[in-house]
TrEMBL record:
Name listed for the protein in its UniProt record: Carboxylesterase
UniProt superkingdom: Eukaryota
Keyword Hydrolase: yes
EC number: 3.1.1.1
Species of origin: Helianthus annuus
Classification of source organism: Eukaryota, Viridiplantae, Streptophyta, Embryophyta, Tracheophyta
Signal peptide: none
InterPro entries noted in UniProt: AB_hydrolase_3 (IPR013094), AB_hydrolase_fold (IPR029058), Carboxylest/Gibb_receptor (IPR050466)
Amino acid sequence: MVADRKIIDQVSGWLTVYDDGFVDRSWTGPPQFKFMSDPVPPHHHFIDGVATHDLLINSKSGLHARVYLPEVPETGKLPILLHFHGGGFCISQPDWYMYYNIYTRIAREAGAIVVSPFLRLAPEHRLPAALDDGYSTLLWLRDVANDETYDSGLSTKGDFNRVFLIGDSSGGNIVHQVAKKAAEENLHPVRLAGAIPIHPGFVRSVRSKSELEKPQSPMLTLDMLDKFLSMGLPEGSTKDGPITCPMGEELQGVELPPYLLCVAEEDLVIDTEMEFYEGMKKDGKKIELLVSEGVGHSFYLNKIAIDIDPITSQQTSKMIQAISHFVANH
């Protein structure tokens, strides 16, 4: 009986786990924030210069994706941004309003097609499920490029020589893992032109200085960080595993694309993100750094803050400009 269910874990506002295995992802925080997690239906007509549609990638697994297509002149092909959403591997979807709001802007301003898979979520599907879904979507893009499958927007407008991996928070972790795996695969005619991890969840079991001293925010608290990873990481693994702790790993001989690492000055995990950045530079990898000043983790997803706080609004615009510039130059 539903009435006999007992709560065995919660992540404030975002997720409730019951003893029978049921997971409730209904927003239970302040009601004024609920709209940000409401799904936006696809619309094949252009609204503010962007159309969206959902498509099935794999009928056996049920993997599907949201596509954001900008309205641009008919001439020329458009770069493709393969986006992995955040949420600690446990929550969020690419059709949530918070993603719709930011990725319609990126698609429009960068003049790029955005493809965002609906990743399987933990705790029902622990890692590497989301990593596998991300990589499967990249292989599906290769099938589209080879005319083995068809999507009206991608097949006619996509430039498969300019595919970029982009993801925020835990999606940034997926960006790095997919980029490493892609280095071992023949993706022709797809070429990975760049990787853009935004506020990736790089951590250790031992708290960093920034985790101890930086302010917690609605987008990331220490409780969220710990609980999401305890639910999402493979059974028996810790934060010190390669998915969440790639700092200092051996990358010699791994042909990674150029990176644009986006960090936020007030992010709880900025110290370990910067350690990753220094390690990539030491290994001779091409990596650029964007630091958003005066803001915290995933600030650009908070539509309310964008509307009422000039710093959040300004830093969001700067980040989108930096992403657009990176895409245009690779």
